[in-house]
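Fold these two proteins, one after the other.
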Amino acid sequence: MQLIVASLGAGTHLGLTMVLDANLKTYYCSSSTGVGFKVLLHNPLETPKMADFALLMAPGIEARVIIRPKISDASFTIRGIDIKKRMCYFTNEKDLQFYRTYTELNCKLECQANYTLSLCGCVPFYLPKNRFKKICSKKQEACSNVAKEVMETPNQNGSNCNCLPACFELQYDASVTFGKLANSFKIKEQLIKNENPDYFMDNMAVLHFYFTESQFTRNTKTNTGGLLGLFLGFGALSVVEIIYYLSLRICCTAIRKHKKNKRKTKKNVVENNNDAKLAYPFAR
């Protein structure tokens, strides 16, 4: 199910409130050892990896989920810079087989699907594939798990996918606070399907999703800072450091030169005085 809701502003009263029913009586299997719900905030252009990155929400709680979008954008002025230096792809610079829009995660999932197919002869159901590819069964789960571990381990096959970040990225950070539901919590009877109040406390959770700000700023990647600052070694802070170093060096050089001249002048005065004392008797 895909639910599209637009927020009217900041705060819980302008956010999204959901009442979820775990229905524990019908539990059959789960990817985790607990019961409840998995919640993940993700880019709508990406396939969510619920088993790996989702937040767990237990029944019988009321939770508040603060959403903080992170928007990273790149200036078109860096398009002329080599990809190996700017370390990001624009949308039309790298095509994917199963996704219309390039993102780093989509690229990695597609690469993992191809690697799993070559290693196990099948593709897990949650990875992108066409209708001609075989879906991995329970017998091939061990092989697909090995392929997944190899792909996600740094400096192994995953590093050969060349999946750089996108020059435009949209991500979401979530902060969660929660408390136990009170018996005084009022809910419409049709939502609990004529069950007793204990059913609500044992099976349901109330989640509030909201923003704390009504406007968000972009982090722009340019050719003089931001992302390129990591690879070109130059940014606004570097300019300050250079000015500081040059001014400090000039001042130190001037001070040393002044002290040296002062010592030289003092030495000449002392030598002249000594010569005068020695020459005086003969002058008499």
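Now the second one:
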Amino acid sequence: MNAPDVKSLFQSYIDEPDGTFITSANLNTYLDAGYNEFRLRVSEYNNDFYARQVVISLTASDSYDLSSTGGNPVTLIGPAPSVGTANAMIRLNSVRISNANGTERGAIYKAVSGLRGLQANYQSWAMVGTVLMFSESNTQTFQLSYVPVADINWDAAGQYIDSLGPYHDLIALYAYKQYAIRDNAVNQPLQAQLAIRERDFKDYLSSPNHETNQYVNQDWSSYDNV
């Protein structure tokens, strides 16, 4: 499916002909939310499917503010990130030692939860608000791998979404969940279809043929992922 196909499917699900109640812009907002949920589900099984990389440098510091309001040269979040709003971060996947070009594949730091995790784990990182915190002070260059926000024009003819076309009906189903909040209604057949399609999608993403099971069963610092 391309973007207009998914939008048309979503419109058929909501069956709402009144353009004053739900506008085309409303539809696009719900589809953006649905696609972001779709991307996050994919990233649970394959961190690198949508990933992009940037390089940051620290000088005798244990923190780096990723917000555009923090004043650092490379920013991924906030009102005006340096990578552009179309590439802003919704999930940080990994942090590894690298070089200025991002070509050196150095040690991968361990992701932990909060400041207590940093105190207990050497070479670890955690997001605390907008700040990327490290377990130690560093004078080092790091490559960050992250998932950006979706940037899809749902009205553009032939707009490509991604290579997971057989499962793009899930985008419309996720978008419907957003619409259902506004409509204050539960669609039981749709909920049943969503459960079936999510199970199929999970099986596909977890299959050896998709090469994503390594991200579920192996640690990020294991040899195969370095």
